[in-house]
Write a structure and sequence with these properties.
372 residues, single chain, globular, five-stranded parallel β-sheet, nine-stranded antiparallel β-sheet, alpha+beta
Amino acid sequence: MKVGILGGGQLGRMLLQAAGNYVVETHVLENDPNCPAAHLCHHFTKGDITDFDTVYAFGKGLDAITIEIEAVNVEALEKLEAEGVTVIPKPSAIRTIKNKVVQKAFYKEHEIPTSAFVITHNLAELELHKDFLPAVHKIGQGGYDGKGVSILESENDISKGFDAPAVLEKKVAIKKEIAIIVAMNTRGEITHYPPAEMIFDPVWNLLDYQLSPAILPEKTLWRAEAIATKVVKELQSPGLFAIELFIDKNDEVLVNESAPRVHNSGHHTIEGNYSSQYDMLWRIILGYPLGNTDPILPSAIVNILGADGFSGSAIYEGLEEVMAMDNVFVHLYGKTQTKPGRKMGHVTILHKDYQDLTYKANKIKHLLKVKA
């Protein structure tokens, strides 16, 4: 079977590493010939994943195609799907999720709980909604890894907003942020991974570290799982979906955002679960039974970020000491150049004791530095 991946970053690379368990011919489309996935696929094509002709030409000789990132040409995928190429997730699901304005409208239409919001098309419209503050302004399309998000505490911050179509979300008093990865195959069968609690870096607005399974009251857990499952059912698409949720101070569960692909919040599943999120996506694409999502042990993830004040050729401090720790797994993304806040890799920690997980996560965070 010939399967194409749009995008060749670290998620694409880890997806290709999991492909080794299956008989599949892999193809990658990516503009950067030195991307992390380039050397692992059978066939690499240099090209723009947002260009219609490029994506269509890449996909028309394939049996199936999937994505590493939402920023792809959906029109080309729709044409390929109409011509018999299996596209997972469906272009309709990508179209819904890739634009946060459309995504929020989808939640409202299907009565999926989410924070209160209004749509703004420019800064002049944003000015009209100053009574809605404090709020979070999210650009409709193009935001990624903390970019395209601005926190507006008062009308003095309106100039920090976006002069483009965007979502203005009422700020939520958050107790916890969690992510649940949901898998649905072409037969409509669904499974999900235990939720992971995400702790974000307040400066970079990137995932700092996470714990899985998240420790939640039973009723909150059931509600979160039910809501995440409803999102995927309403999308009516096979695939792997990461559903990010807020749990507020009143234990209400609200959908924050969704991603129609393998996700950073599921990195721990490589070592921490019987079937990783990457293995699961291959099972869905190739038509095999869904995998076992049970955890082998509780796990934590620490993101390896470029240190503040350093740009240039990456130098890793503390790497050997971290690699000497028990049940610690280091994943470097092969990026030769570092800059402040750039994701250079992640570390997964396994342990039955949550206190030990948190201790090691904080130790690694302060020990392992990426400088230049």
